[in-house]
Amino acid sequence: MIHVAQNTRVPVPKVFAYYTYGPIDRDVGDYGGLYDTYIFMSFIAGETLHTAWDSFGVSAKSQISRQIASYIQEIRNIGNVGYIGSIDHGPVTDRSLATSLDKGTKPRPWEWNTQGPLDLD
Q1: DSSP letter for each residue of 15-45
Q2: C-beta separation of 80 from 74 below 8 A
Q3: Where do the domains of the chain lie?
Q4: pLDDT per residue over 45-84, tens digit each?
Q5: Bridge partners of 21?
Q6: Residue 110: pLDDT over 60
Q7: Cα 102 to chain center, whole Å?
Q8: Which of 81, 87, 89, 93 is nearest to 106 (CA)?
Q9: Which of 23, 65, 69, 80 fits 34 for a cystine, CB–CB 3.0-4.6 Å?
Q10: In which band, very low, low, confident or very high, does the pLDDT at 117 lie, cut at 50, 70 and 90?
Q11: Region (Disordered) spans which residues (predicted)?
């Protein structure tokens, strides 16, 4: 988030601090890793897009979709960030990815960005 805030106009929460705690004696299969990472950031008030989406008309949904596409394009245009994945260049071991068949290691954007360019017009 710090990198995105410094290199784009994409709105992200302000990061105040972050740290990793561990190793923790626990089952990696259940928890995804031996370390927990915490991010202390500003709170952005409001309703989530997921919650509000059905209340929008077609025009608003189209405008929001274009805005999100422009944010994604801006992040893609940051340039070569090198590696994207876990800090040790191994598979990403997050519990939220437990059912995902592919957990990383894709060092080049074209290997993980399989959806192609976004049409902003």
Answers
A1: EEEEEEE----S-HHHHSSS-EEEEEE----
A2: no
A3: 1-44
A4: 999 999 999 999 999 999 999 999 999 889 888 876 666 6
A5: 36
A6: no
A7: 16
A8: 89
A9: 23
A10: low
A11: 95-121
